[in-house]
Design brief:
Blueprint (H helix, E strand, L loop, with lengths): L33 H11 L2 H10 L2 H15 L2 H11 L2 H4 L3
Length: 95
C-alpha cells in the first residue's frame, strides 16, 4: 500500500543526526534526498531507524534504492539484510 505524500513528515528526527555527520542535517529533504537518507539509515541505523523508514518510505521506494544503489553504497551485510527484510511483508504493513 502506497503511503500518501501529503501525510509524510518532512524532517528527520534529531535522534538520527549522528548518521548525517558530514552534511547540513536540517537542510535534508525526505524526497529530494531520499537515496542519501535511505542509504545512511539502512547502513547505520538500528531498530528505531528501521521503524522510521517503514513509516516514511514505502516498500517500492526502499526496493528501488536497493536495486539501483544498494549493492554499491551499502556494505554486503547491510545489503543482504535489507533484501531479506523486503521479502517479509509484515514489516511494511501499516499498524
Amino acid at each position: 500500500m502506497k503511503k500518501s505524500n501529503s501525510l509524510k513528515i518532512t524532517f528527520i528526527p534529531t535522534e538520527f543526526k549522528g548518521y548525517f555527520w558530514d552534511c547540513d542535517f536540517f537542510s535534508l529533504d525526505l524526497q529530494k534526498h531520499r537515496n542519501f537518507v535511505l542509504g545512511r539509515l539502512l547502513q547505520y541505523g538500528g531498530f528505531q531507524a528501521m521503524k522510521w523508514i517503514r513509516n516514511h518510505y514505502n516498500i517500492q521506494e526502499v526496493n528501488q534504492y536497493l536495486k539501483m544503489r544498494g549493492n554499491k553504497e551499502l556494505d554486503k551485510r547491510s545489503y543482504t539484510f535489507w533484501k531479506k527484510c523486503l521479502k517479509i511483508e509484515e514489516i511494511w504493513r501499516s499498524n
